[in-house]
TrEMBL record:
<feature type="transmembrane region" description="Helical">
    <location>
        <begin position="443"/>
        <end position="464"/>
    </location>
</feature>
<keyword id="KW-1003">Cell membrane</keyword>
<keyword id="KW-0328">Glycosyltransferase</keyword>
<keyword id="KW-0812">Transmembrane</keyword>
<dbReference type="GO" id="GO:0016763">
    <property type="term" value="F:pentosyltransferase activity"/>
</dbReference>
<feature type="transmembrane region" description="Helical">
    <location>
        <begin position="299"/>
        <end position="319"/>
    </location>
</feature>
<keyword id="KW-0808">Transferase</keyword>
<feature type="transmembrane region" description="Helical">
    <location>
        <begin position="139"/>
        <end position="162"/>
    </location>
</feature>
<feature type="transmembrane region" description="Helical">
    <location>
        <begin position="339"/>
        <end position="357"/>
    </location>
</feature>
<protein>
    <submittedName>
        <fullName>Uncharacterized protein</fullName>
    </submittedName>
</protein>
<dbReference type="GO" id="GO:0009103">
    <property type="term" value="P:lipopolysaccharide biosynthetic process"/>
</dbReference>
<keyword id="KW-0472">Membrane</keyword>
<feature type="transmembrane region" description="Helical">
    <location>
        <begin position="174"/>
        <end position="194"/>
    </location>
</feature>
<dbReference type="GO" id="GO:0005886">
    <property type="term" value="C:plasma membrane"/>
</dbReference>
<feature type="transmembrane region" description="Helical">
    <location>
        <begin position="268"/>
        <end position="287"/>
    </location>
</feature>
<feature type="transmembrane region" description="Helical">
    <location>
        <begin position="398"/>
        <end position="423"/>
    </location>
</feature>
<feature type="transmembrane region" description="Helical">
    <location>
        <begin position="244"/>
        <end position="261"/>
    </location>
</feature>
Length: 529
């Protein structure tokens, strides 16, 4: 999993009485000899804590390079070809991006960040590259929306690299990447100037830089490379200045490193404090402007106290949708013995109760909008509708209630699977001491906590309002990386692969169909003006 640099590992040497520590160095040419094996020079030691000697053997190991060269381009091609197949209509604003486009235009013309009263995240990096595009091509929604497709390709490659850097094998890494980038949410929000895909790419880049900063120490522990770590901190700050929730995710990753790497706290703790102070200061500056309309604390308390069932339902809907879109990887990640465990049965029952037993006299999950794709497309008993909760007249009914129910049930299964995988991950961390945790363990944990921290920070907001599904894109990567790492340690049986591939294919086809339908509708509306 670290093919291009030296690393240490332990193995049972043939004829040896115990575990031997060794260090492997890639061949100078970095090539793959015949037979699909790559040769590593190995320096042996006489014991786990003994000094390493000069190269004493050449160890052939299975090569992942060939599969990387196939799977990553294949995943990229699938994403880009799907986006081209939906025939994106790029010449008009598709959602809130009309506001973001005018912020970029104001920056290009005046050199200042100007907000216009519409709800907006901080938007600094996106406004900057949008201004560059406007200066180069003139103000055009086509150029701004096309940049979303470019960033989608970069996000796809970065997600794959992140999963591989955290110890996932090529196949699980490719499946995790496809689960993130071939679902209806990602496909629907990409051909636009919305903040979702740019913020996702920036978050993935910051986390990848953080993982790459982790280095194997001479004593078998994990240390941080100061220069790479500094780069990751800068990227984390930049990413949060586009959408502030990314600061929470990156801060969660830093706190995880403080916990798992006690010897690196002198380096990580000041960085975490710096990120926290800058994030709070910029958030205060941003919130003091008159264009912001903050949610009333009093209103939120009224909702939580007077309409607790509504708050619980909103939170459950978020969890249910995350479970639905992460289920393909969850099927590969969960230990097959856990499917028959009492813990999974109880958790699944708890996740199914809100579906069939309304939480209030007028509030039932299946009777509410279940959002499937961005731009106001909703997965409801009426099918896919476009343009808001009420939709437009004469829209086709695509999905009958039976399919809606099936998807919500699958989402509940996904929530239960996610809970079990997280529980097993937590138990594994608790069982191993700081010296026994491997570099992939540390990297995967930091990335997973990044997702969990952003979800936890958003729960109060989720509780008092209905949430657009596109917000969930930033919460999925860490969980998918954790699933990919767990799947790499499980036997990839034909049954598991078939089930995961089927669910992924259904999401892919659904994403293509709904986004293509929306683009056709947008094209027809634009032709009227």
């Amino acid at each position: 999993w670290l093919p291009r640099r030296a690393f240490t590992f332990s193995y049972a040497a043939p004829g040896a009485s115990g575990v031997v520590r060794a260090a492997a160095l890639p061949t100078s040419g970095g090539g793959t000899p015949a037979g699909g094996a790559e040769y590593l020079y190995v320096k042996h030691a006489s014991g786990p804590r003994q000094p390493l000697h000069e190269p004493a053997a050449v160890l052939p190991v299975p090569s992942h390079f060939a599969r990387d060269r196939i799977l990553l381009p294949a995943t990229l091609a699938a994403v880009l070809l799907t986006l081209l197949a939906v025939r994106p209509h790029l010449g008009v604003p598709l959602n809130d991006d009309f506001s973001y486009a005018h912020t970029a235009r104001a920056l290009a013309e005046s050199g200042r960040i100007v907000y216009n009263g519409w709800a907006s995240p901080m938007l600094w990096p996106q406004a900057a590259y949008g201004a560059l595009l406007i200066k180069a091509f003139g103000f055009s929604y086509t150029a701004l929306a096309a940049s979303g497709i470019v960033l989608a390709a970069l996000a796809t490659a970065t997600m794959y690299a992140l999963a591989r850097a955290c110890g996932a094998g090529p196949a699980p890494a490719a499946l995790a990447t496809a689960t993130l980038t071939l679902n209806p949410i990602f496909l629907g929000v990409t051909p636009s100037f919305m903040t979702d895909v740019p913020s996702l790419f920036l978050l993935l880049a910051a986390l990848l830089a953080l993982v790459k900063a982790l280095q194997p120490g001479e004593a078998g522990d994990t240390r941080l490379d100061p220069k790479r770590f500094a780069l990751s901190v800068v990227l984390g700050l930049v990413a949060g200045s586009n959408r502030q929730i990314v600061w929470v995710a990156y801060f969660g990753a830093l706190v995880t490193l403080i916990w798992l790497l006690p010897r690196q706290r002198r380096l990580v703790a000041p960085a975490a404090v710096l990120v926290l102070v800058i994030a709070l200061a910029l958030s205060r500056w941003f919130g003091d402007y008159p264009y912001t309309v903050p949610t009333s604390v009093g209103q939120g308390l009224l909702v939580l106290v007077g309409y607790t069932n509504v708050a619980v339902m909103f939170i459950y809907k978020v969890a249910n949708m995350m479970g639905l879109f992460s289920l393909p990887m969850g099927l590969l990640a969960m230990d097959k013995r856990r499917w028959r465990s009492l813990a999974f049965g109880v958790l699944l029952l708890l996740c199914l109760v809100p579906i069939f037993y309304p939480l209030g006299t007028k509030v039932a999950l299946l009777g509410r909008d279940y959002r499937l794709t961005a731009y106001g497309q909703y997965f409801t008993s009426r099918g896919v509708v476009v343009g808001g909760v009420s939709g437009f007249e004469n829209r086709p009914t695509i999905f009958p209630p039976l399919i809606i129910t099936a998807c919500v049930v699958l989402g509940a299964v996904g929530v239960a699977v996610t809970g079990i995988v997280l529980l097993d991950w937590w138990r594994g961390l608790r069982r191993t001491g700081s010296q026994a945790r491997t570099l992939p363990d540390v990297a995967t944990s930091a990335v997973a906590v990044a997702s969990l921290a952003s979800v936890a920070a958003s729960l109060p907001w989720f509780a008092i309002m209905n949430i657009f599904d596109r917000y969930l894109l930033l919460y999925l990567p860490g969980l998918l990386v954790l699933f990919a790492r767990a799947a790499s340690e499980r036997p990839m049986t034909k049954t598991r692969i078939a089930a995961a591939a089927t669910l992924l294919a259904v999401q892919w086809v659904t994403g293509y169909g709904t986004v293509a339908e929306y683009m056709n509708y947008t094209r027809a509306r634009a032709a009227l003006y």
